[in-house]
């Protein structure tokens, strides 16, 4: 991929800085990450645990939450989350309970069956990715390891505009 550059210039034409055009790389990376993520989610999707249900169960691993909290986390409407929670209750993956501090609030908790289903799906996703990685050369695996470290640093909320050190 050829790198193009953009320059900021002073009124007299002096180059003030040299910034590589990262747009093409950003587009390539965005597509690759989205496709890989979609493929990983699809590998573990079963009749009982769709990607959406998986995400809700993962959100419940730390602590019980309200339907509103789950909806906000998943960025969907509360009625849509209520339908997902209802399905998960019927499947035995979550249960409803009272909030001890506010009896009006219903808290959703993951059950042992839900935890087991989540762990199985995670295992399936990891196994699929490990199989794909095993087909790569050691040099390619090392490159992906380096990229993984960079992506994790880039996705950290505190990164801001500082340089990523991998």
TrEMBL record:
InterPro entries: HTH-type_Bedaq_tolerance, HTH_MarR-typ, Tscrpt_reg_MarR-type_CS, WH-like_DNA-bd_sf, WH_DNA-bd_sf. Residues 1-11 have a biased composition (Polar residues). SUPFAM superfamilies: Winged helix' DNA-binding domain. PROSITE patterns: HTH_MARR_1 (PS01117), HTH_MARR_2 (PS50995). Keywords: DNA-binding, Transcription, Transcription regulation. Residues 1-22 are annotated as: Disordered. Gene3D superfamilies: Winged helix-like DNA-binding domain superfamily/Winged helix DNA-binding domain. GO terms for molecular function: DNA binding; DNA-binding transcription factor activity. This is MarR family transcriptional regulator. It comes from Arthrobacter psychrochitiniphilus. The lineage of its organism: Bacteria, Bacillati, Actinomycetota, Actinomycetes, Micrococcales.
């Amino acid at each position: 991929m050829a790198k193009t550059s953009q320059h900021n210039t002073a009124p007299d034409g002096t180059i003030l800085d040299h910034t590589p055009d990262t747009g093409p790389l950003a587009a390539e990376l965005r597509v690759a990450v989205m496709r890989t993520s979609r493929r990983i989610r699809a590998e573990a999707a079963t009749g009982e645990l769709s990607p959406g249900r998986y995400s809700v169960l993962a959100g419940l691993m730390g602590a019980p939450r309200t339907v509103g909290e789950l909806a906000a986390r998943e960025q969907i409407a509360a009625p849509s989350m209520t339908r997902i929670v209802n399905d998960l209750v019927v499947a035995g993956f979550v249960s409803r309970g009272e909030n001890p501090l506010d009896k009006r609030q219903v808290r959703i908790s993951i059950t042992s069956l839900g935890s087991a289903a989540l762990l199985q799906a995670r295992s399936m996703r990891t196994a699929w990715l490990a199989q794909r990685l095993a087909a790569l050369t050691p040099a390619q695996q090392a490159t992906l390891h380096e990229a993984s470290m960079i992506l994790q640093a880039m996705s950290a909320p505190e990164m801001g505009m500082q340089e990523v050190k991998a």
